[in-house]
Write a structure and sequence with these properties.
With 684 residues, this protein is an alpha+beta fold. The protein has twelve helices and 39 strands. Strands 7-6-5-4-3-2-1-8 form an eight-stranded parallel β-sheet. Strands 9-10-11-16-13-14 form a six-stranded antiparallel β-sheet, with helices on one face. Strands 26, 28, 31, 33, 37 and 39 form a six-stranded antiparallel β-sheet that branches. A hairpin with a 2-residue loop joins β29 (577-579) and β30. α9 runs parallel beside α10.
Length: 684
């Protein structure tokens, strides 16, 4: 993860403001102007504006939408004036502005390393040769708004140490206003231990004193529970540490943000960090889940990919207006979790028009049936309901069941209404597959599919098909069609599926599709992909798992590494596995949260390892380890820290088809959670 300097949770309870804050800076050896620009408690400017809650400033009545460069560029050279102007042009040309995106935000590294002789900020002359005001003018001329970044500390988060705003709040806020800035992201690095609420409130008052409407984004990583106090301070507040472009990072942040729904509302939003859609570290299915769940959480939608290089699929995801409407609903409710058992999530969001949006989200690595009802989502009892699929852009009727088989890591997003117009639409159908997704090349596996009518009306002229990769033999063993399928009834079909001999191990896609008609003759179709894993039987005897193919692997920062530590975000950048000074030659290096799955085929008896936090992050990091045999937790550790030597773990996995290795964050966030599965073996 992004390991930032001087992240301290120590707080100072005394009321440090104005010149006292400047005194703290000088005592810490920081560069500061001779006279602090922040007013003292007796100054009218501070006392007049401090009574105005930021959430009452009339801004961000729906979650902000726009762009921020950090996720795609960090502080690399491509972050410059040309990029920012190019993004603004793309917003207009690609219809993103019309879809609701309006802020073009600069993150860290826009400034020179030192203030000028007057204590003022200056733009980096290489990156922004015409200055920030000229960039703001360019953005404004296209009907968009400009955002900027600084930190509530002596320096920003970049290792170069660019000037922060602590002790300069009023001067910096006025500069931003004079330049035409419309949005401020205020980070938390190098904060000198000054109380967080005080630091962020001081900048709130400084922004208000400028008289310019500036959306205020608090970025203190959720360390001081800002959802409990920041509604009167900022328009949005980060609830977690930094996101990165990985499934496990996105999932972890989503899980941290979902329980905070009560804190969100017009003008004051939970912020689970910027979007990673299009940066390449996740599949398009995972990016659709990312975008869906951020919209369900009424989160800011700040694009984090370089749109100059974006694919058509990325633009399709980011510009889905039906999903954006969920995020931007004026009622301002964040979705709430109805259930999440076994990775099958149901999240419901109340909308201003009385409808409910239901997210059926599959956390697991295989397709799963996920179900709820319209009444459970908060709708009144009715004869029938209209149900709109917001990704497929199709409308159905349902008798009340809100259900789907959801692909691995996928989300089905449904808008359901008790509107009386349900009979005009075809019935919804649910597609399901029963059978093992694990197959050996050249061997035939039985699978069973079903198509169930969820609607109030019958499905007619029903026809199903199961398709797979070229060369695979897929044969139906029972009828694939039905003249009519009454409400609540299912068409079940048995199949035999054979991957060709010699098929390489890996994941392949099978697709179940159905065509049918409504009683009025309206044609309809639906399909769902399923993942089939071609596997090889594990070798007999004791094997290092780092030498065997895995079914799936995820890590919270960078990829899972074989026989080295996690290292950083790049593949192959790890170090020798080292726990408590002991070096191990074999194993897996991961970063919490992490899950790695291996095929055991019912032929293995035990998994053993020496586990702990890798030495590469010094004294930081705390994690937990679990070994699962199919759906049963077979072994686990308590919380392990860097101060501990490697701990043995042994799991009985007899009869298991799949062994799953799980690393959690120890309950204190994921900073520096580099975990090692050292000397990792499976006995078969």
């Amino acid at each position: 993860m992004r390991h930032l300097p001087t992240r301290t949770t120590r707080t100072v309870r005394s009321r440090v403001v104005g010149a006292l804050a400047a005194g703290l800076l000088c005592a810490a050896g920081a560069t500061a102007p001779a006279v602090a620009d922040s007013p003292t408690p007796a100054t009218d400017t501070a006392t007049d504006t401090a009574t105005v809650p930021q959430s009452d400033n009339g801004l961000a009545l729906t979650p902000p939408m726009g762009f921020n460069n950090w996720n795609s560029t960090h502080c690399r050279a491509e972050f410059d004036e040309s990029m920012v102007k190019g993004i603004a042009d793309i917003f207009v040309a690609k219809g993103l502005k019309d879809a609701g995106y309006q802020y073009v935000n600069l993150d860290d590294c826009w400034a020179k390393p030192q203030r000028n002789a007057d204590g003022k900020l200056e733009a980096d002359p290489v990156r922004f040769p015409n200055g920030i005001e000229a960039v703001a003018d360019y953005v404004h001329a296209r009907g968009l708004k400009l955002g900027i970044y600084t930190s509530a500390g002596t320096k920003t988060c970049d290792s170069v140490g660019l000037p922060g705003a602590l002790g300069h709040e009023y001067s910096d806020a006025q500069q931003f206003a004079d330049w035409g800035v419309d949005y401020l992201k205020y980070d938390n690095c190098n904060n000198q231990g000054v109380d967080a609420k005080l630091r962020y409130t001081t900048m709130r008052d400084a922004l208000a004193a400028t008289g310019r409407p500036i959306v205020y984004s608090i970025c203190e990583w959720g360390q001081n529970q800002p959802w409990e106090w920041a509604a009167d301070v900022g328009n949005l507040w980060r609830t977690t540490g930094d996101i990165n472009d990985s499934w496990s990072s996105m999932l972890s942040i989503m899980k941290q943000n979902l329980p905070l729904a009560a804190a969100a509302g017009p003008g004051h939003w939970n912020d689970p960090d910027m979007l990673e859609v299009g940066n390449g570290g996740m599949t398009d299915t995972e990016y659709r889940t990312h975008f869906s769940m951020w919209s369900m959480m009424a989160a800011p939608l700040l694009i984090g990919s370089d749109l100059r290089k974006a694919t058509a699929e990325t633009f399709e995801i980011l510009s889905n207006r039906e999903v954006i409407a969920v995020d931007q609903d004026p009622l301002g409710k964040q979705g709430t979790v109805l259930s999440s058992a076994e990775g099958r999530w149901v999240v419901a969001k109340e909308m201003q028009d009385g409808s409910r949006v239901v997210a059926l989200f599959n956390e697991t690595g295989n397709a799963q049936r996920i179900s709820t009802t319209a009444e459970a989502a908060g709708l009144p009892r009715a004869a029938g309901y209209t149900m709109r699929d917001l990704w497929k852009h199709t409308t159905y009727n349902t008798a009340g069941s809100v259900s789907a088989t959801v692909p691995a890591h996928g989300t089905v997003l449904l808008r359901v209404a008790a509107d009386g117009a349900w009979a005009a639409h075809p019935p919804a159908v649910e597609l399901d597959l029963d059978g093992s997704p694990l197959m050996e090349a050249g061997r035939t596996e039985p699978l069973t599919t079903s198509v169930t009518d969820l609607g109030r009306t019958p499905a007619e002229k029903v026809s199903t098909a199961l398709t797979g990769p070229s060369g695979w033999r897929i044969e139906a063993q029972s009828p694939t069609g039905s003249a009519a399928l009454p409400s609540g009834r299912a068409l079940t079909t048995r199949w035999q599926v054979t991957p060709p001999a010699g098929t390489a191990t890996g994941t392949y896609e099978l697709t179940l599709g159905v065509r049918y008609r409504s009683p009025a003759g309206t044609p309809a179709r639906s399909s769902v992909p399923f993942q089939a894993h071609v596997v090889v039987a594990p070798p007999t005897g004791s094997s290092y798992l780092s030498d065997l193919p895995w079914l799936s692997a995820s890590s919270g920062w960078g990829p899972v590494e074989r026989d080295t530590s996690n290292g950083e975000s790049g593949a192959g950048d790890g170090n020798p596995l080292t726990i408590g000074g002991t070096v191990f030659t074999k194993g897996l290096g991961v970063h919490a949260p992490s899950t790695v799955e291996f095929y055991a085929g019912g032929a293995c008896s035990a998994v053993t390892a020496q586990v702990g936090v890798d030495d590469e992050k010094g004294t930081r990091g705390s994690v937990t380890f679990e070994i699962w045999a199919d759906g049963t937790k077979a072994a686990s550790t308590g919380v392990l820290t860097n101060a501990m030597a490697a701990q043995p773990i042994t799991a009985d996995v007899r009869g298991a088809q799949v062994v799953r290795l799980v690393v959690g964050d120890g309950g204190d966030g994921t900073d520096s959670d580099h975990a090692d599965w050292a000397d990792l073996r499976m006995e078969c």
